[in-house]
Amino acid sequence: MSRATGGPREAAARYVFRVRFRLDTPGGVAAEPDRFETTVYRRADPPGEPGWLFFRDNCWRGDLVDDSQFRSIVESELGVPVESVAFSELQTSEAHLDELKTAIAADLDLFNADSVTEVLSKYLGSSIRVE
User: Fold this and answer.
1) pLDDT digit string (tens) for 11-61?
2) Among 12, 20, 31, 61, who pairs with 96 as Cys (CB 3.0-4.6 Å)?
3) Cis preceding linkage at 50, omega within 30
4) How many Å separate Cα 102 from the centre of its chain?
5) Each residue's pLDDT tens digit, 49-61
6) In degrees rounded to 5, what are phi and psi of residue 81?
7) Among 87, 71, 69, which residue's Cα sits nearest to residue 124?
8) What does the alpha-carbon distance between residue 113 and residue 108 come to, in Å, rounded to a whole number?
9) SS3 state at 91
10) CB environment 67-91: b (16+ within 10 A), e (fewer)
């Protein structure tokens, strides 16, 4: 998660996650509400650069492969106890998506697939939004 970005439109593509976290307050202090939901963004590395296979390594059919491991990563990055994290979508520009498709097509063996469409469906499901 260390490649997070700020607000919308900072990167050509980014992964979007819904995160539910809580505040752990010290004795004698209380907070209400003590649970919150937020949206967390992670920059999608350009195809071919280190980290570009994030979707392959972390997603399956549009869900996180290991949500408990990913929850720990997000917890470390945010510095609060995370109760749940869910992959929402890959937000991408048309240009970035074209680059991604080209990189996937160049090495389908990396994905154990016969086509780019199969790869995108296998890992991201229908969770791709072109902006």
Assistant:
1) 589 999 999 999 988 888 999 999 999 999 999 999 999 999 999 999 999
2) 12
3) no
4) 21
5) 999 999 999 999 9
6) -65, 125
7) 87
8) 6
9) strand
10) eeebbebbbeebebebeebebbbbb
- Give mean pLDDT, residues 81-89: 97
Place of tokens 């240009």: 95
The identity of residue 50, as a single letter, is: P
CA distance 57 to 116: 16
Q: Residue ranges of the domains in the chain? A: 13-130
With beta carbons less than 8 A apart as the criterion, state whether 48 and 60 touch. no
Number of residues that make up the chain: 131
Are the C-beta atoms of residues 77 and 1 closer than 8 Å to each other? yes
Q: Read off the tokens for 82.
A: 């995370």
In the chain, what is the straight-line distance between the N-terminal and C-terminal CA atoms, in Å?
Answer: 22
Six token digits for residue 35: 């649970």
Calpha distance 97→131 (Å, rounded): 10
Asked whether the predicted pLDDT for residue 128 surpasses 90, the reply is: yes
